[in-house]
Amino acid sequence: MRILVVEDDKDVAGFILKGLKEAGHVVEHADNGRDGLFLAASENFDAIVLDRMLPGGVDGLRLLETLRSQNNQTPVLFLSALAQVDDRVKGLKAGGDDYMTKPFAFAELLARVEALTRRGKTEAPVTRLAAGDLEMDLLSRSVRRAGQKIDLQPREFRLLEYLLRHAGQVVTRTMLLEGVWDYHFDPQTNVIDVHVSRLRQKVDKPFPTALIHTVRNAGYMLRAE
Known about the structure:
The protein is α/β, with parallel strands linked by helices.
């Protein structure tokens, strides 16, 4: 990770920089608010460790408020000797993601910084599911196998989507009732068997190999050989 440390105390900054580098991170340092703001606004960082009281005409609160006004959402951990509840509240309201007070343990600082970066990462939504030559586009709500379009009814689509999301796994009757039909009880009907049979007619029958398999006394599995 690339981490920016904005801290004017040489001893504290040196301690943090050494620890972060030893942990494998790339670190930039600014010893005043003006330089810290310039670096934060002009370069990409995964996290910022920011002191509240800084020289240079720009303190930590102002620095962060400026960044947030520019829609810069880099996670920020305040590290400050200002330890009163009101001080912590001001830091968080200014846009801080976490707040630690001095003196501090480096192990905790490192854990908090790494937690902030994990929290800030979001996975791209899944828009396509596939198994073998079977493909499902969740945006267009379309299904193809070996390039051939397959028309499905809404419930059949949901059933196939559930099987694809659990490809290679045994899917039980209870899982299908809850995940596809939103039932949290067994209605004691053959609704699952009927829909699986219809799905097989469309997804498997026209093709040389079957993808939907019955697992005796357990449920079903969608599996590409």
